[in-house]
Amino acid sequence: MPATPVRLDLSSPVRGPRGKPPRHFVDLTPDERVAAVTELGEKPFRAKQLATHYFTHLTADPAAMTDLPAASRDKLVEALFPRLLTNVRTQTADGGTTVKTLWHLFDNAKVESVLMRYSNRTTLCISSQAGCGLACAFCATGQMGLTRNLSTAEIVEQVREAARALQAGEVPGGPTRLSNVVFMGMGEPLANYKAIMATVRTLVAPDGLGLSARNVTVSTVGMVPAMRKLADEGIPVTLALSLHAPDDELRSELVPVNTRWDVDEALDAAHHYFEVTGRRVSIEYALIKDINDHAWRADLLGEKLNARGKGWVHCNPIPLNPVPNSKWTASDPRVEQEFVARLRAHGIPTTIRDTRGSDIDGACGQLAAEEDE
């Protein structure tokens, strides 16, 4: 394991040095939307019409807004729906049912999102930051450093674009709806807390995208104060804690934020989330050969989870996905099976996480917004 100290970037730049994204309809409250359309010389009810087009019909194309006067459409769209994302490259796997998209933002910052269609659901993995400042040792995004936070509209646009593609039947299997959103793409979601919560509210609002809060997952490497704040928001999203080691010595090397908030503090905050919301917490654990996959670590993890009660947690071991220039690899399947068996012996519900998209660098820990083929 490397002994070189790793510099964490826990700053929360509002937009970063690249400047502020242009104002977008999604960034505005309902009252602000009404004010914006009236400032443009339109009737207040146009704001609700625009919301219906964007959130229900999933479009910002003025040509599709046939219930608005032709003279108003271009003016409203130009002022309130600036292009925030540009599709630079799309890669597919699994017969086209896994789709990774590289987006350029307005300032040429880059992020990626991954859409996965299963037989019983569709899941979109979205990015909340361009890059990441938390420097997890096995994560390609973490090695990029932090460029900037994304705005609420930049995050929501990833969701709208995926929902539109599914609705239009662009993903094999026929037209369908987006059912699940996971904040497991580029960035540490809870380091961009304000935009994340505004996005979550937009995702679950009946007059927004209308998703079930239970089908929205917010992931974190263990930003304890924000985890506790999330518990008090009153929105029962699923919380996923990326733990990756049950002991502080190893976790501080794998996940440097552990030097700020240690394993027990992170688990206490996760258990607090369960107590407040009643929502079972997911523990994410990337299995790395000969690093964190020892049977005794599985036992230690089981003991620590059970020490906080029963029935509050579910564990998702994830075979490590390959990252360029990394010396680490996934655990041997027999070791993986033993790790899972040990956790289950402690009564911890445990499911190996699906690693779809690894062949297009679209799986957990692989997103790096590379443009070269």
Structure explained in plain terms:
GO terms for molecular function: 4 iron, 4 sulfur cluster binding; metal ion binding; rRNA (adenine(2503)-C2-)-methyltransferase activity; rRNA binding; tRNA (adenine(37)-C2)-methyltransferase activity; tRNA binding. Belongs to the radical SAM superfamily. RlmN family. Its EC number is 2.1.1.192. The chain is α/β, with parallel strands linked by helices and 373 residues long. It folds into 2 domains: 25-81, DNA polymerase, domain 1 (Orthogonal Bundle), CATH 1.10.150; 85-346, TIM Barrel. Helix content is 31%, strand content 17%. It contains 10 helices and 11 strands. The strands form 2 sheets. The protein has a 9-stranded mixed beta sheet, covered by helices on one side. The protein starts with 29 loop residues before the first helix and ends in a 28-residue tail after the last helix. Mean pLDDT is 90; it is low at 1-6 and 12-17.
SSE blueprint and pairings:
Layout: H1 30-39, H2 46-56, H3 70-80, E1 86-93, E2 98-104, E3 110-117, E4 122-125, E5 129-132, E6 145-149, H4 152-167, E7 180-183, H5 193-204, E8 216-220, H6 224-231, E9 238-242, H7 248-254, H8 263-277, E10 281-287, H9 295-306, E11 313-319, H10 333-345
Parallel strand pairs: 4-7, 7-8, 8-9, 9-10, 10-11
Antiparallel strand pairs: 1-2, 2-3, 3-4, 5-6
Helix pairs in contact: 4-5, 6-8, 9-10
